[in-house]
């Protein structure tokens, strides 16, 4: 009796957590399972395991979604966005935490405060600026947009990390006659590897997943990203659930890989400032 | 800590490091050109009747008064209030789950990973997945039928009564893991001994949560509440885009999606800009609290 009472709570807790975990994993499992089924198999029973599995849907989706093009656009803009965000934000974080000059705190506050302007608040005026720079339907245009909206959080995360790096490191290098640029590239950059990884992964995930900036900037068919392609799935293929699932499954793979190999950094990044 | 600390240092009359400005330059240019200028010009457009042609003039606050009479905008605002009313769910569900994990349930790392999982799935894709799962005769409806709850086997996104709440459910599914992780970071700062002592004194689980957990976590709870309050008006776009398009009727229309529609489909930049300004004022009011938190409390980053 006492054994039951003593163990009832942990078992109940375990059950609740398991149920929630199933609700988070199952929907994507459902999509992958559906993607591997034949149409006939899917309409016979939606829930059964896809056995034997067919890869026809994946192949068909790859060809029909013009995935090569869309995937290329997604890869270039996401990787470009991640790298340029590093290049733009690390110097700001460095200057904000390790250099002394008038107006520094004010400038830093301005950078952080630009978080108050999410794209939804400036939708059309922003679109106009991008158009006036002839950046519509250009990979460079989307990269610039990604970086602009990554600046507040990435800068914040990097400076939070750099606050923990002793100033003596920089001062010692300066005594040795190193220039600011040398300090940045030879001292700060290597020290910042962990936070560079975290910001890179967090930016990769939201840039890869984002839909509003791509929809705004990359409307032409040849410049669509994977997410725009995923957004068009329904209209294109009517009700072929297996084919739509295949398209979704393919679009989610890169981030899934990221999740499997860099979970620690993802969780770290989520706790550092948390919002885009 | 940062401000007081650095001011003291500046007084030591160190030479000014001009290269600091160079470091800020690229970021300032981007923020200036692609955020501040659009914001300023958006505010200006909002007082005009500009529709893309060179023929326009200032019309005062007509765009703003028009919102008050625009049924779609009113519907969007009422829906926004409805969404905001769900805030307790957004605050409580992750809190309870984080606390259950924090008790070091066996396999807690696996649970944490599972809860974070929806956060990394693209919202558009999550939207599509749920239009399957919650669609007419989808798995959820079949489950409900099999246990005799036929009344609840609805077309969740196609029904005026449920569309908005179904969207809230999907967004909550995507974001609750973020809350769990933020709470866990806060909880990892709590000394374990306090709970051990409380257990020895005979405090039960509920008492420990109410009298120790919540008071110690108030800053984290406040922080996460602010994130949600601002986020709820800017997180829903992809779900609406992928699932309901604001419908049926205006049942699931929210301000951010209506701004998008007015900008793109109706091509009324001046009116859309005015609504953007209203959204900006809301987000600023909510987020100033958050910026303060981030600026003065930059050591949150090391909690994890």
Describe this structure in words.
The complex is a heterodimer of chains A (276) and B (304). Chain A is mostly helical. Chain A has helices at residues 2-35, 39-44, 56-64, 67-98, 104-113, 123-132, 139-163, 167-175, 180-191, 193-209, 212-217, 226-237, 241-261, 263-271. Chain A has a single domain, classed as MetI-like (MetI-like fold, Orthogonal Bundle). Chain A is 77% helix and 0% strand. Chain A is globular. Chain B has 304 residues and is mainly alpha-helical. Chain B folds into two domains: 1-45; 65-295, MetI-like (MetI-like fold), CATH 1.10.3720.10. The two termini of chain B are 19 Å apart. The relative contact order of chain B is 0.13. The interface between A and B is large, with 102 and 106 residues.
| Most residues in contact, chain pair and counts | A-B, 102 and 106 residues
CATH superfamily of the largest domain in chain B: MetI-like
Strand proportion of chain B, as a percent range, falls in: under 5%
CATH class of the largest domain in chain B: Mainly Alpha
Average pLDDT reading of chain B: 84
- Reported by name, the CATH topology of the largest domain in chain B is MetI-like fold
Q: In CATH's first tier, which class of chain A applies?
A: Mainly Alpha
- How many helical elements of chain B? 14
Shape of chain B: globular
Give the helix proportion of chain A (percent range).
Answer: over 70%
Number of strand elements of chain A? 0
- Low-confidence spans of chain A: none
How many strands, which pairing sense, and closed or not: the largest β-sheet of chain B? none
Number of helices of chain A: 14
Rg of chain A, Å, rounded: 24 Å
CATH topology of chain A: MetI-like fold
* Low-pLDDT residue intervals, each spanning 5 or more residues of chain B: 1-5, 298-304
Q: What would you say the CATH architecture of chain A is?
A: Orthogonal Bundle
Overall tally of domains of chain B: 2
Strand content of chain A: under 5%
